[in-house]
């Protein structure tokens, strides 16, 4: 301007034609502007170098925010050594500024002196007490700060030896995906209850707490916090009481992220007894033993024998016995044979085993039919369903 002042100006054509406004002006040089946008309110950072006697502002770093009618300016630093600010706006709308303190070690002879070189990080968020020193070298300069799509705050800068460097100033909050429940595909079931495998994924999380709710009751912690993203939990069987799981992620400092809740589901069982969707054909023998669910199971050897379980569910499981003399099973799901027979032969006898599991894309009525392959006895100890 004709007055001889030096100014920082902001220009925009957001309303159609170009307009510009003076952000800061004075006799001393205003240099190195950086801009960040948050809606219609830009943030601009710059630094004042070598102010003259008639300048009303000292040297150092400034940041201004457009309020809608005027620029609101804050002094971030009054040090003549501070320069090259870069500005970003985080997800919460807070201003983040990264700038360089270019003071040599001849001035700062020990690491913790007030004028120590390196990069400084400043924010207007609550609890951010002054600028934080985040690097230490006198050659750290020309910083740039950005907000990542995941909410992180990161910086890049020129490092000693004219190399490029990066720094993570803030990781995003820990997060977890929505938990998903499935019936387990293998293993031994409890004598009366069912089991479900709960899976989820985490991001920027160190450990997770898993909680369970039955119906509209309270949330209760399942086990302890751990890094595992797959948990197998015992489920009480009920065709009417809905169960839901909620996972809370925590970062390495113990800070909690937003909990994520599964959809409600039900797990219920059917015993070996006919009825309630279980029908038998051919010759079956009732066998007793404390190791079976309910103390009883059904056994057949003839290829003409069959059992059919009809259920409206998203997943189903057949429970059987494994052992040295147990034969194979031929299985048909919704009228389609699954292919090769399912072998239940094992070196040692074990009970309440998950012999077969099938998951479907949607919840609807499904039918599984099981027949002995003819090479040994076949046991039916019940079924589980998930909806």
Mean pLDDT: 91
Q: Strand pairing plus helix content: what structural class?
A: mainly beta
> Count of DSSP E strands?
33
Shape verdict:
elongated
Question: Can you describe this structure?
Answer:
There is one protein chain. By secondary structure, the protein is mainly beta. It has no helices and 33 strands. The strands form nine sheets. Strands 23, 24, 27, 28, 29, 30, 31 and 33 form an eight-stranded antiparallel sheet that branches. A four-stranded antiparallel sheet has the order 3-4-5-6, with no helix packed on it. A hairpin with a 7-residue loop joins strand 25 and strand 26. It is elongated and about 105 Å long. The mean pLDDT is 91.
Topology overview:
Blueprint lengths: L5 E7 L6 E8 L3 E7 L6 E6 L11 E7 L4 E5 L6 E8 L5 E7 L16 E6 L8 E2 L7 E7 L5 E7 L3 E8 L4 E2 L3 E3 L11 E6 L2 E2 L3 E8 L5 E2 L8 E6 L7 E8 L9 E2 L5 E4 L7 E4 L3 E4 L7 E5 L5 E17 L5 E6 L2 E2 L4 E2 L6 E23 L5 E3 L1 E5 L1
Antiparallel strand pairs: 1-2, 3-4, 4-5, 5-6, 7-8, 8-9, 9-10, 11-12, 12-13, 14-17, 15-16, 16-20, 18-19, 18-21, 21-22, 23-33, 24-27, 25-26, 26-32, 27-31, 27-33, 28-29, 28-30, 28-31
Any descriptors?
387 residues, mainly beta, eight-stranded antiparallel sheet, 33 strands
What's the short version?
This protein is mainly beta and 387 residues long. Helix content is 0%, strand content 51%.
């Amino acid at each position: 301007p004709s007055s001889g002042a030096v100014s920082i100006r902001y220009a925009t054509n957001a309303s159609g034609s170009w307009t510009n406004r003076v952000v800061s002006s004075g006799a001393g040089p205003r240099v190195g502007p950086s801009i960040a946008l948050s809606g219609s309110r830009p943030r601009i950072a710059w630094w004042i170098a070598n102010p003259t006697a008639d300048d009303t502002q000292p040297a150092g770093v400034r940041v201004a925010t457009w309020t809608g009618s005027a620029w609101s300016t804050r002094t971030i630093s009054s040090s003549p050594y501070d320069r090259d600010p870069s500005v970003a706006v985080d997800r919460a709308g807070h201003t983040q500024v990264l700038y360089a303190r270019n003071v040599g070690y001849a001035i700062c002879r020990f690491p913790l002196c007030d004028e120590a070189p390196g990069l400084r990080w400043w924010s207007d968020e609550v609890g951010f007490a002054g600028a934080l020193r985040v690097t230490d070298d006198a050659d750290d300069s020309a910083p740039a700060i950005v907000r990542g799509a995941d909410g992180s705050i990161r910086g890049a800068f020129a490092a000693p030896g004219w190399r490029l460097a990066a720094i993570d100033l803030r990781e995003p909050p820990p997060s977890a995906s929505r938990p998903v429940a499935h019936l387990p595909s293998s293993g031994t079931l409890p004598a009366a209850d069912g089991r479900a495998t709960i899976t989820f994924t985490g991001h920027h999380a160190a450990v997770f707490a898993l909680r369970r709710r039955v119906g509209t009751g309270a949330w209760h912690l399942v086990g302890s916090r751990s890094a595992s993203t797959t948990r197998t939990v015992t489920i009480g069987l009920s065709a009417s009481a809905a169960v839901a799981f909620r996972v809370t992620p925590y970062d390495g400092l113990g800070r909690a992220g937003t909990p994520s809740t599964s959809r409600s589901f039900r797990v219920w069982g059917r015993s070996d007894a006919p009825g309630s969707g279980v029908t038998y054909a051919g010759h079956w023998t009732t066998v007793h033993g404390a190791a079976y669910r309910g103390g009883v199971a059904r056994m057949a050897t003839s290829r003409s024998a069959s059992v059919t379980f009809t259920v409206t569910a998203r997943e189903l499981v057949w429970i059987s016995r494994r052992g040295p003399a147990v034969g194979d099973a031929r299985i048909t799901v919704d009228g389609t044979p699954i292919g090769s027979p399912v072998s239940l032969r094992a070196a040692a006898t074990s009970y309440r085993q998950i012999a077969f599991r099938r998951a479907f894309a949607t919840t609807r009525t499904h039918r599984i039919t099981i027949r002995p392959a003819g090479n040994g006895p076949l046991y039916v100890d019940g079924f589980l369903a998930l909806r």
